[in-house]
């Protein structure tokens, strides 16, 4: 049985974008739109998507422009949230998705808040993974630092070693999980060398450090929907103080701390699985019901 289907579409500026679908749309049921972190791609959600697909959900997982199998942009200024939101809106229109559960990790969560302001009626519920309306500067500097690197690896073993040094906060213990993360982060190129699976130029707009919009106002745009929010217990992006304020600021939010994990939880931890299953229970149909 095919695990997922693969698709390409063109954004309004002609950029070719890639997305995966797990399962098929279900009448009168919201689909789950998965949005990854800043330099991440659809591969990150594979394990989570397979599990949720087995519970009867339909999932759409996008590669942002400049990541994974989507086109890179000749103009780095197009690597910005406004363009990403336009791409997402175009995808939702293309797939005729009028109701979604937004599952957003890091940047994906910020874009989910943006959808709350731009397309409030499309959101049925929102899941935020280690992101909030305040971003800790030290964590952002760390991210800019590793995105600015352009390493080249001669073997997957050397790539795994590098990823371990870049993401020590992930908290993986099994070697197979580190290999999985490395294969999600890198690709083997035509010359046989292994490089990051994103355009290094995605970091260029971040170096400008332009003033951010009022992220708390964007977070408040989610007040009409249930929210599940995860925080890695040692996150250097989402602080305990911001997490607590988010809890106070929303009357229908569930906040879950995943211990001994930094930025970001994989959503495969026991605490994450339990919280996801409970949160999604009202939207779930059994796999048998759609066969």
UniProtKB/TrEMBL annotation:
GO CC terms: membrane
InterPro entries: AB_hydrolase_1, AB_hydrolase_fold, AB_hydrolase_sf
Domain of life: Bacteria
Domain AB hydrolase-1: 32-274
Name used for this protein in its record: Pimeloyl-ACP methyl ester carboxylesterase
Organism: Aestuariispira insulae
């Amino acid at each position: 049985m095919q695990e997922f289907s693969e698709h390409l579409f063109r954004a309004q500026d002609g950029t070719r974008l890639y997305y995966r679908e797990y399962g098929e749309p279900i009448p009168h049921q919201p689909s789950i739109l998965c949005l990854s972190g800043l330099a991440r791609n659809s591969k990150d959600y594979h394990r989570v998507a397979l599990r949720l697909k087995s519970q009867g959900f339909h999932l759409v997982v996008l590669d942002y422009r400049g990541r994974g199998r989507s086109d890179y942009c000749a103009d780095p200024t197009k690597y910005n949230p406004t363009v990403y939101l336009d791409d997402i809106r175009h995808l939702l229109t293309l797939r005729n998705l009028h109701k979604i559960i937004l599952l957003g990790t890091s940047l994906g969560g910020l874009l989910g808040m943006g959808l709350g302001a731009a397309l409030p009626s499309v959101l049925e519920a929102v899941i935020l993974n280690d992101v909030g309306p305040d971003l800790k500067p030290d964590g952002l500097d760390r991210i800019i630092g590793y995105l600015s690197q352009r390493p080249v690896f001669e073997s997957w073993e050397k790539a795994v070693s590098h990823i371990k040094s870049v993401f020590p906060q992930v908290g993986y213990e099994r070697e197979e999980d580190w290999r999985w993360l490395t294969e999600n982060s890198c690709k083997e190129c035509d010359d046989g060398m292994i490089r990051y699976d994103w355009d290094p130029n995605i970091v260029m707009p971040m170096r400008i450090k332009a003033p951010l919009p009022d992220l708390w106002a964007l977070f408040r745009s989610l007040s009409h929907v249930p929210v599940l929010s995860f925080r890695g217990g040692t996150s250097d992006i989402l602080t305990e103080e911001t997490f607590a304020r988010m809890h106070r600021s929303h009357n229908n939010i569930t906040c879950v701390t995943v211990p001994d994990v930094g930025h970001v939880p994989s959503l495969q931890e026991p605490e994450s699985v339990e919280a996801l299953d409970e949160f999604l229970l009202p939207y779930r149909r059994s796999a048998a019901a759609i066969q």
